[in-house]
Amino acid sequence: MGRVSFFGGGYCISKYGVEAFSDSLRLEMNKFGVKVCVIEPGYFKTMITNTDNLEKNFHSIWNKLPEEIKASSHGGSQFVSTLKVMEKTYNTDLSLVTNCMEHALTSLHPRYRYSAGWDAKLLYLPISYLPSAFSDALFSLFYPKSVGKA
């Protein structure tokens, strides 16, 4: 999510920051022989992707919303069903990430960036090079359609 903003604005902002900081640090530390690498994992099963926690947090927030917002949001059912679909797509093999870490730490010539997981390599990385209009159109398919006009 440090290359494309697909969900969770705050989360993506933090990942963009890590990318920028790492790039700056890599340039600044190069003169000291220090190599800085970025590992860009795809969608893996972790605590942040735990659908039970996400659903529990969603319902906690949902219950605090004003009734007029709840009425215009179709009960949030699309969000919950999207969570269930996403649960089926995450990767459970964290060794793909740790193998990247190992290579970055032990290689004489580590890469600047490592993409771990098929989605990072075949989806997020290529999309990050496409025009924003294309990625916006693609990612908007996953967002709920607005019911009324503001």
From TrEMBL:
Organism annotation: Cyanistes caeruleus (Eurasian blue tit)
UniProt cross-references to SUPFAM superfamilies, sorted A to Z: NAD(P)-binding Rossmann-fold domains
Entry-linked InterPro entries: NAD(P)-bd_dom_sf, SDR_fam
Superkingdom to which the source organism belongs: Eukaryota
GO molecular function: oxidoreductase activity
Protein name: Retinol dehydrogenase 2-like
Protein family according to the UniProt entry: Belongs to the short-chain dehydrogenases/reductases (SDR) family.
UniProt cross-references to Pfam families, sorted A to Z: adh_short
GO biological process, one term: steroid metabolic process
